[in-house]
Amino acid sequence: MLSYDVLIVGAGGAGLMAALEASKAKDLRVAVISKVYPTRSHTGAAQGGINAALANVDPSDSPEVHTFDTVKGSDYLGDQDAIEFMCTEAPKRIYELEHLGVPFSRLPDGRIAQRPFGGAGFPRTCYAADKTGHVILHTLYEQCLKNDVEFLNEWFVKELIIDNNEAKGVIAIDIRSGEVHAIKAKAIIFATGGYARVYWVRNTNAIGSTGDGMAICYRAGIPLKDMEFVQFHPTGLRSTGILVTEGARGEGGYLINNKGERFMARYAPQKMELAPRDLVARSIETEILEGRGWGEGMMAYVHLDLRHLGAEKIKSRLPQIRQLCIDFEGVDPIEEPIPVRPTAHYSMGGIDVRDYKTSMTGVNGVFAVGECACVSVHGA
């Protein structure tokens, strides 16, 4: 029987970071079990960046302002202690990623570049062009290999084993062979991502984002929390729902209706296209429902116009977005506006985490991190 001190279920950004931290204790046997190869995890599709108050662009930014923006963006439903902790820790984690080798985009003076993002009072989003998740995922995977983390790739976890409110292990299937295994573990960390794939008509999620970890924990008696809060990203490609990063608006893109208006002036005259995502998404749907979009039914859309940014900026800052638009919509953003509509994006609810500093659930030895976890920092 396989046996580990720490078993991480899921090999995305949160899972690999958890594995890397656990592997620093050299006396622990650490393994990551994943139904896909680690570099195929959905973190690789994350584009725009990570918010942290480094104040590299505007010295007025601070973790306190970041905390306020996040509390406000949660419609005051977020856990304010957890939000403060996250925003205070964020700069340290960005520098940690930098030291691990993540190639963030740079300002002319060499510091980490930051771009404006929705709901933020200052340019706060640290990014690597429009491939931020991709470079973070590959960097963390390389570091885990360096630290001798074991990987059980293409294994599917079915059940969590608990005895007297204490983690004992999991039941998993080796997908390639079909064999069922019981795996012992003293600590089990769920990092299985979200469930937005349930919105099958239009979503940004990989086909494997099916909420496995949440379902496993729920069946084992661990509560779920805030499951009604699902974030719809304002800009998904019309036909597929594939994400068009908020960075496109952060770089200066305009949302335009069929009357040629920058319609966000009606809904958020100060923030415009960089209002919080829920507000922008509702505004787009309102424009469509009131007849100011293009097309009909589920294929109706508005335009995201990047043409005024110029070819050089689009090619250097948004190269992946340009290629996705060409491949999936037949549109080159340098020449034409992009047809977009809100798309299911992020699961803000998840496995109930009782202690936001340790990620512990209500069961001893069971932890949850990343999108599958809920520490209530997002609110509504």
What is the H level of CATH, i.e. the homologous superfamily of the largest domain? FAD/NAD(P)-binding domain
Q: List segments where confidence is low: pLDDT < 50 over at least 5 consecutive residues.
A: none
For the sheet with most strands, the description reads: 7 strands, mixed
β content, as a range? 15-25%
Structural class: alpha/beta
Q: Provide the residue-averaged pLDDT.
A: 95
> What fold name goes in the CATH topology slot of the largest domain?
FAD/NAD(P)-binding domain
Instruction: Give me the Rg, rounded.
Output: 21 Å
Helix count from the secondary structure assignment: 10
Q: Helix proportion of residues, in percent?
A: 25-40%
Protein name: FAD-dependent oxidoreductase
InterPro entries: FAD-dep_OxRdtase_2_FAD-bd (IPR003953), FAD/NAD-bd_sf (IPR036188), FRD_SDH_FAD_BS (IPR003952), SdhA/FrdA/AprA (IPR030664), Succ_DH/fumarate_Rdtase_cat_sf (IPR027477), Succ_Dhase_FrdA_Gneg (IPR014006)
Catalytic activity: a quinone + succinate = fumarate + a quinol
Organism: Sulfurihydrogenibium azorense
What does this structure look like?
- With 380 residues, the chain is an alpha/beta fold.
- The protein folds into three domains: 3-42 and 143-229 and 348-374, 3-Layer(bba) Sandwich (FAD/NAD(P)-binding domain), CATH 3.50.50.60; 48-130, no CATH class; 233-344, Flavocytochrome C3, Chain A, domain 1, CATH 3.90.700.
- Helix content is 28%, strand content 23%.
- The chain contains ten helices and 17 strands.
- Strands 1, 2, 6, 7, 8, 9 and 16 form a seven-stranded mixed β-sheet that branches. The protein has a four-stranded antiparallel β-sheet with strand order 11-14-13-12. It has a three-stranded antiparallel β-sheet with strand order 3-5-4, covered by helices on one side.
- β7 (155-163) and β8 (166-174) form a beta hairpin.
- It is globular.
- The N and C termini lie far apart (43 Å).
